[in-house]
Amino acid sequence: MCGIIAVLRRRSERTPPGAMALLALLDGAVDDINTAGDADLLGVLSAAADRTEELDRLLRGTPGVRSLLADAGLSGAIEEQVNELAAALDAREADLDADSVDSKDLEAVNAAIIRLKDALWSVDKDRLRTARAVAELAGPHPTRSAVEAFTSVQAALSAIDRLEVRGRDSAGLTLLVVGHGLDLEDPTVQSLLTGRSRDPLFTSGAVRVTPEGHLSFVYKAAAEIGELGDNTQVLRHAIRDDVLLASALLADTAEVTVLGHTRWASIGIISQPNAHPMNSDETGLADGPYVTAALNGDVDNFADLKVSDGLRIASEITSDAKVIPTLVSRRLSAGDSPVEAFRQSVRRFDGSVAIAANASAQPGRIQLALRGSGQALYVGLDDDLFVVASEPYGVVEDTSRYLRLDGETPADPDDPAGTRGQVVELDASRAGSVEGIVRFAYDGTPLPVADSELSVPEVTTRDIDRGSYQHFLLKEIEEAPRSFRKTLRGKLVTGPDGLVRATLGPDTLPDSIRQALAAGEIGRVLVIGQGTAAVAGQSLARTLGAQLASTPVRVQALPATELSGFSLRPDMTDTLVVAISQSGTTTDTNRTVDLVRSRGGRVIAIVNRRSSDLTDKSDGVLYTSDGRDVEMSVASTKAFYSQIAAGFLLAAAIAQEVLTDGEGAEDRHGLLAGLREIPAAMEATLARRAAIAEAAREVCPSRRYWAIVGSGANRIAAEEIRIKLSELCYKAIASDAIEDKKHI
């Protein structure tokens, strides 16, 4: 996978907000939260969230950046307000873990906390950070054009940082600057262009003067090894130190179109010449129409196209992406408009692709193409702004709505091959509006975009921030105790008899299901999920099954696909299904829930995302963590632990309804009381990371994999060696002697 990013902006006419108005928004919010009684807490939190969201709105875009840059002390004053409010919120949130809020209000309070946390994070980590980054890139006393340009550059660099999880062996950014006002014949300008305009491979620092007189800058980084964030640091420093770029942005008329990419090499070695974006230069040919482009996926027939069209591509460039700008340029030379030249070119590509391109003939427009199931493109919209990215988390920092391109659905079902895929052109003069998006099917059929097609992001940058961690897996392991603790919040109550009970509100365990359990109308409880969620379901089923062993109720855990394939019955009115999913969008689980409900079954979901598909399909919902604790790493950690916690809670709550005479209460008390201790135990374990690392270095083998091969009769000897070696390894692992383990 790779990541595409593009930014188109029109000059904002919104007046930059004043410092006094900005600071007034959070005045008194800390005192309100500190002094609010439990009955008033929800209203106070909601009001604070409203005011912080308004502050975030005012600081968005270039008007907000201009305000922050114009007043040297404003960023620090806002940051102080945000930190104080966040500290007050943390203190009140700790009270929730101590059961100070009635469980019936808990979900509403949690939702208000999430809103306020999102807004505070956005102000601090998005708006203030953007202004600081723009100041670093632009230097002191930047022109308005420079602020506009570098705000777009910062948006692209920030998005590439997040998209690097799709591939990080190289990254690149092209900036097409129009209206620069430079005299390209001036000796000073010529000295800055010398060498940079003659790089035939379009490597980092190269500059092209387009036929229209625009300047195209490129910055690239390529490295086979490194850490996440290294590439964007290289790009950021190169952009910051570029004197020619700074000179080009001095004019009030200067505007910038940004196209970027982060790569995982599939065709072509890892090198700057192969890093995207690429331009339309061909060796030995006079300059033609100028185009830059970036590719996700593979153009499977790129070698054939190079031969059939006689493309003259430098031998050092071996990536399939190079055919895109060259073919588009050829069609522009033949007289096509940029969007038609782009559409006709991408129609010829075999394979699953996502493509973004920019032609200097229309510098304020970007063309996009998506075809096939393996790629994705999202167009984010906000005031005066389009941001294009390969994932929603590439657009959420700067945009409030997005359009997802559809690369699979044919516009004409009778011609699926010809009409599958979409081509989009974005117009900077109408950036941020649906009117600025023109969409076609691959055959040219117009596909107008309606407001109703736009989605509101369900995550924020708070969910997807890696912080100071090297990778998301480590971050999410560290967050596991907090997620576990939040799952228990307000749901464990000690009664007058000293026994701990699970207390779940009607949003989780509806009255109708409680009554059916108590009346014996439910005879089966099926716990379903896929992957890790199915494993978590096994603990729920085992715990509940043990509690209900003396009753007719049967409990079983099974994958959702097994239930839908083999275990459905025409009448399931006696069945309660517990469906577990991290995202709430797992297709197999959701489809099985639909089939169960159509047969009269009832459903309770354990899920980590509010307003997801699964929550809409369920009778009751038990949220893990705070209901929006996104997990970015492939290996599940905090989500799995939270599902285990939720499973124990729900098992106890169901048993309490079935065993109305208090049977098993002592056992449940021991289990639930133990749950309270687990987060602290997890934290104590994580605190021993250094000792665990040392033990791993001491005990783990220096080589993880061996291959024993042979052919003919030697295969038998190889198999005997493998069996003997396996026996020795198992014995060494089982041994308590460290010395034995060293030599595994």
Summary?
By secondary structure, the protein is α+β, with helices and mostly antiparallel strands.
Structure explained in plain terms:
The protein has 744 residues and is of the alpha+beta class. The chain contains 25 helices and 21 strands. An 8-stranded antiparallel β-sheet has the order 3-4-2-5-1-11-10-12. A 6-stranded antiparallel β-sheet has the order 6-7-8-9-13-14, with helices on one face. The chain has a 5-stranded parallel β-sheet with strand order 18-17-19-20-21, sandwiched between helices. The longest helix is centred in the first third of the chain and has 36 residues, at 103-138. It is globular.
The computed structural class is: alpha+beta
**Approximate shape:** globular
Main sheet: which strands, in order across? Answer: 3-4-2-5-1-11-10-12
Number of helical segments? Answer: 25
Query: What is the average of the pLDDT values?
Result: 91
Number of strands: 21
Helix content: 40-55%
Biggest sheet layout = 8 strands, antiparallel
Which regions contain 5 or more consecutive residues with pLDDT less than 50? Answer: 736-744
β-strand percent reads 15-25%
Distance between the terminal alpha carbons, to the nearest Å? Answer: 36 Å
Rg result? 30 Å
Write the layout of secondary structure elements.
Elements: E1 3-9, H1 19-24, H2 29-35, H3 41-59, H4 61-70, H5 74-97, H6 103-138, H7 144-163, E2 170-178, H8 187-193, E3 207-209, E4 215-222, H9 230-240, H10 243-248, E5 255-263, E6 278-279, E7 291-297, H11 302-308, H12 323-333, H13 338-346, E8 353-359, E9 365-371, E10 378-382, E11 385-389, E12 401-404, H14 416-419, E13 422-427, E14 437-441, H15 472-488, E15 492-494, E16 500-502, H16 511-518, E17 524-529, H17 532-547, E18 554-559, H18 560-567, E19 575-581, H19 587-598, E20 602-607, H20 613-617, E21 620-623, H21 638-658, H22 665-686, H23 689-699, H24 714-734, H25 738-742
Helix pairs in contact: 2-5, 3-6, 4-6, 4-7, 5-6, 6-7, 7-9, 12-13, 15-21, 15-22, 17-21, 18-19, 21-22
